[in-house]
Design a protein that fits this description.
The complex is a heterodimer.
Chain A: E1 40-44, H1 59-68, E2 73-75, E3 81-83, E4 86-91, E5 96-101, H2 114-125, E6 157-161, E7 164-168, H3 201-205, E8 213-215, E9 221-222, E10 226-231, E11 246-250, H4 254-262, E12 268-269, E13 286-300, H5 312-323, H6 327-333, E14 339-341, H7 367-380, E15 387-392, H8 398-412, E16 416-421, H9 424-432, E17 439-444, H10 451-459, H11 473-484, H12 488-505, E18 508-521
Parallel strand pairs in A: 1-11, 15-16, 15-17
Antiparallel strand pairs in A: 2-3, 4-5, 5-7, 6-7, 8-10, 9-10, 10-11, 12-18, 13-17, 13-18, 14-18
Chain B: H1 2-29, H2 34-38, H3 46-55, H4 62-74, H5 87-122, H6 127-141, H7 144-158, H8 176-202, H9 205-212, H10 217-246, H11 249-254, H12 260-270, H13 273-301
Helix pairs in contact in B: 1-13, 5-6, 5-8, 5-10, 5-13, 6-8, 7-8, 8-10, 9-10, 10-13, 12-13
The chains are: A alpha+beta, B mainly alpha.
Chain lengths: 542, 308
């Protein structure tokens, strides 16, 4: 599972469509020694679900699906979007969107029509189909807060003609098209559905797709071993493969994968194991990649926690906690520079990122001020409890949780410690049942490249991933305004304003961004990472 | 003898019932919510969750779940994993490689251990004996993953003699290094057991008699010393086969072998009852059958032992 045990930030980490760049249209220029028919091997893990976009929410399957399918839009490496299957996506009120499609075919020659999208999304949202990715349909009219619809036809979608359909949203959202490159919004061919209207097992094993790659025939998915993809000659988008195919080799242990890169048996490893973090940049046997990434890490302090409510006392304590953490020291000493101290609630890779948000000094290290604020809070009401941070013990979090606890202990003079849950789902159960009464580790990997995605689903009142039950009307208003703002700069400013509110309230304490730490074998070219912390698979050559 | 075998086989039924019950109870008692885990940090609709739970019988009481599992198991239907694949497929794919690996490890430790142990036992106090004692002590003291990583680095990466990892398309030749690593600790035990046993038997009456009859050293060792010395070794090896299979998880993850250890480990993490219980049930079967085989071997090694 991406879930590749230690990399999982959110347990089930998220997937989104791979990106493309304009350079890709130019063909393969500038590569002297590389050949375009070489198959590239990359690390992966056994998909936990059929290769159907709406039922795959973990990266083992998600990374493969992103290369197999093409959505209405595609993401470039820098996170900007371009139309892929869509010819145009337009709206007058940001609420009803009209989508017109290009001429496009699935790998078996059948046409990609408005129906291919509408049927696939309706299938994904329909409650009886119990699809793991249903959540992503929640902005569309006719779904509930979890993105499920009660009827087999999703009422927010209307087919106009073969190449046109409309999407009606619950509320206006200027940024909506940016969501459409995510895998839940990929189309399915008619061949996917059996006579009972369900996606067939055979299709999930060996899907017919419309993306840059297709399955390498029957049996291309060798369970627990690998999945072989070959370029789809019907594909005419901007992610044209520059290699002769991709093989996702499955590893249950990153150390084994790293060894294979060293020995030249694996071309690209997207996450270097902890054991190699200190050495991989000077390892002669590999080509290292180390750059900022898009994963935001934090720990959430639930609003219900005694002493940390939404009143003045709670705010003071939250700020004191944040100021008492020396992020530089931890990212340096514990993570060997593979994390970058957080400056906001999103990621430096997002369009519109601002590192000087009002009030962001609260993320710096200032033990004096921290002590002072804590004392002020104690004047309002004495704090006798213990500050604990819950984390899943199977994700490699103990080291930093212990370090943070020690810093809180030393700098604030309070009792602080970590609390380990053996597995991720045990932690999540306590969190979703709201039985957790201590702070807990949280993280966010964007579903699509927008700061909105880091804020609204996580801190909006009653939002799906608002695990701490934070609620602030001012924040909600700002984020809603941002959603409706046509102008890009205005939108970015509203994101910053909304984050300034969060800097005051600190529903979660931002800690750091996870960097990309990857390695490729000698002789592999064009290893470029995108906003999703994934290599641009279609560009790899050797 | 056949009556004895039949009786032993019948005994496996309550053993398996008990084992599945205990494992089922343990996985059931594990806290957490595997279905919520499937959805990651995204919210789940209650209706969807109940639907998935019903599919895996997770909505039913513990005893009913266990009985339903047993009912299916009788017809070799072990249910589906949470990823929707039949458990029987997962198991039948993972077992061959693990069995091969375990048997290879067993063969390596048996041949090397018995030969080296016999030589050491015959020349007690000599240079070879001392070297072997120290070597085996080191092997037992150092954790297995240290040997795994070091040998992988030396032979796989630096020298490039073998593939550093095995992967899904495994073959016997690729498994030699992992099997060696897996069998290493047991090799040390077999060596020490054989050595002590041989040394003891050298001073028994029947060996002195054999020597007095004028038999060659070779005949004495082969027929009179070794055969008697093997009883404790065989006991150890029989139990060890099970231990090698169940304990292969470390070796399997170092060398990326998609075997039973990895399967069980991942299933436990996900709280996937059907897979965990099926794997363990088969492990129990292996243990039971291996110990039966050991008991039968006793009679062949030592004619004084008879089964009626």
């Amino acid at each position: 599972m991406r879930l590749s045990r230690r990399t999982r930030l959110a347990g089930v980490a998220l997937v989104a469509a791979a990106s493309l760049t304009l350079a890709a249209c130019g063909g393969d220029s500038g590569d002297d020694s590389s050949s375009s028919d070489q198959v590239i091997t990359v690390d992966g893990s056994e998909p936990q679900n059929p290769l159907v976009p709406s039922s795959t929410n973990e990266t083992g399957g998600g990374n493969v699906i992103d290369e197999l399918y093409a959505g209405l839009v595609a993401y470039k490496a820098d996170g900007s979007t371009v139309n892929e299957v869509a010819d145009s996506i337009e709206s007058e009120d940001n609420k009803t969107w009209t989508v017109k499609l290009k001429d496009w075919e699935f790998s078996d020659g059948s046409k990609v029509t408005a129906d291919s999208f509408v049927k696939a999304w309706s299938y994904g949202a329909f409650i009886d189909n119990a699809q793991l990715n249903a959540y992503f349909y929640y902005p569309i009219a006719g779904t509930n807060d979890e993105g499920n619809s009660e009827t087999p036809e999703l009422s927010g979608l209307k087919v106009v003609d073969e190449k046109t359909f409309t999407i009606t949203l619950k509320q206006a959202e200027a940024d909506f098209p940016a969501r459409l490159g995510y895998s839940a919004f990929f189309p399915l061919p008619d061949a996917a559905f059996g006579s009972d209207g369900k996606v067939t097992k055979e299709f999930g094993e060996n899907p017919i797709t419309n993306g840059p790659y297709k399955m390498d025939g029957e049996g291309a998915w060798e369970h627990d071993t690998q999945i072989r993809l070959v370029p789809n000659e019907k594909y005419d988008g901007e992610r044209k493969p520059e290699n002769g195919g991709l093989t996702f080799k499955f590893y249950t242990d990153l150390d084994a994968a790293y060894t294979d890169v060293q020995a030249g048996n694996l071309d690209v490893l997207k996450t270097v194991p902890d054991s190699a973090l200190t050495t991989f940049e000077s390892d002669e046997n590999v080509q290292p990649v180390s750059e900022p990434g898009s994963v935001f890490q934090s720990f959430t302090i639930p609003q219900s926690m005694p002493g940390f409510g939404s009143d003045e006392e709670g705010k003071l304590r939250r700020q004191a906690i944040s100021l008492a953490i020396n992020r530089e020291e931890i990212t340096d000493k514990i993570f060997n520079g593979t994390r970058t101290p957080a400056k906001d609630f999103s990621s430096p890779l997002m369009p519109g990122f601002n590192e000087d948000i009002e009030g962001s000094e609260v993320l710096s290290f200032d033990p004096e001020k921290a002590k002072q604020l804590w004392a002020q809070a104690d004047e309002i009401k004495k704090f006798n409890g213990k500050f604990q941070i819950g984390y899943n013990g199977d994700g490699g979090h103990q080291a930093w949780v212990d370090a943070v606890s020690n810093q809180l202990k030393n700098n604030l003079g309070i009792q602080a410690s970590g609390k380990s849950y053996p597995t991720f789902d045990e932690l999540r159960k306590d969190v979703t049942d709201r039985t957790i009464k201590i702070a807990f580790r949280t993280g966010w990997q964007p579903d699509y490249p927008s700061i909105y995605n880091y804020l609204a689903p996580v801190y909006g009142t009653g939002a799906g991933s608002n695990d701490g039950d934070y609620s602030n009307k001012q924040f909600d208003d700002l984020i809603n305004q941002a959603a409706g703002a046509q102008d890009e700069d205005e939108r970015y400013k509203l994101y910053s304003d909304a984050q300034a509110v969060l800097m005051q309230d600190l529903p979660a304490i931002p800690t750091w961004y996870t960097n990309i730490a990857a390695a490729s074998a000698k002789g592999v070219n064009n290893v470029e990472f995108n906003w999703q912390n994934l290599p641009e698979y279609h560009k790899l050559t050797k | 003898m056949w009556w004895y075998v039949g009786k032993r086989l019948l005994q496996t039924i309550p053993v398996i019932l008990g084992a599945t019950f205990i494992i089922y109870a343990l996985v059931f008692l594990r806290p957490g919510d595997p279905i919520a885990g499937l959805f990651g940090e995204k919210p789940v609709n209650e209706g969807v969750k109940e639907q998935i739970e019903a599919q895996y019988n997770l909505d039913k009481p513990f005893l009913v779940q266990w009985l339903l599992f047993l009912k299916g198991a009788v017809t070799l239907d072990f249910g589906n994993s949470y990823t929707g694949r039949p458990v029987i497929d997962l198991v039948s794919q993972a077992f061959p490689v693990t069995i091969t690996l375990a048997l290879m490890a067993l063969a390596i430790e048996m041949v090397l251990g018995i030969v080296a142990g016999t030589i050491a036992g015959l020349r007690r106090g000599g240079l070879f004996d001392s070297t072997m004692l120290v070597t085996s002590l080191i092997v037992i003291a150092v954790p297995i993953f240290v040997f795994g990583f070091v040998l992988q680095l030396i032979f796989g990466v630096k020298l490039g003699w073998v593939d550093p990892t095995v992967g899904g398309d495994w073959s016997v030749s690729k498994l030699i290094l992992p099997a060696f690593v897996l069998g290493l600790v047991s090799f040390a035990y077999v060596l020490r057991l054989t050595r002590t046993s041989v040394a003891e038997n050298l001073s028994t009456d029947h060996v002195r008699t054999a020597r007095a009859k004028g038999l060659t050293q070779r005949q004495v060792v082969k027929n009179h010393v070794l055969r008697n010395s093997l009883i404790p070794v065989v006991t150890f090896l029989g139990v060890d086969l099970g231990a090698l299979m169940a304990g292969a998880v470390v070796t399997e993850s170092i060398f990326n072998i998609p075997g039973v250890g990895n399967l069980a480990y991942n299933a436990i993490k996900r709280g996937e009852n059907p897979t965990v219980v099926s794997v363990v049930t088969i492990m129990v079967l292996v243990y039971v059958l291996a110990s039966l085989l050991v008991d039968l071997l006793y009679a062949w090694l030592d004619p004084r032992i008879r089964y009626a």
